[in-house]
Amino acid sequence: MQKFEWLEKYSVGVKQIDEHHKKIIAVTNDLAEAIRAGVGGEAIDNVVQELLNYVKFHFAYEQEYFDKLEYPDSQKHKLEHLEFTKKVISIYQNYAKGQGLLASDLLRFICDWLQSHFMGTDQEFGRRLQVYLSEEEFQVEIKR
Ligand SMILES: [Fe+2]
Ligand SMILES: [Fe+2]
Fold first, then answer.
1. Can you give the pTM of this predicted structure?
2. How far is the centre of ligand 2, averaged over its atoms, from the C-alpha of 38 (Å)?
């Protein structure tokens, strides 16, 4: 599989979110590398765990803004995050039990989901967050 490169079209227009997404891509590439190198289960376990920890942090970061933004798609967006996490865990457990699924299936699912989430659901959220953050900055300037 080709290296998963961050592309400008993934940008949601908010630096912090883009930085998180780049880090998620970097960990996904570490997973691809571990699979390619054929390293043992424990090394793959560690990378999957690192990915899950980081996406948990990132999803919580996005979700913290949902109320502040009065974001109408918050339930749908939260559900997408939850389903991604559940699916990664379930594919990984099946793979670890040797039930016919390959680490490459897991990797394919992760890459496809991330690309479509970055270019879909996170875009609208990013637009709203951009407006919110610029208004917040404006308030600070008025107070000065
Ligand atoms: Fe995101
Ligand atoms: Fe998201």
1. 0.91
2. 31
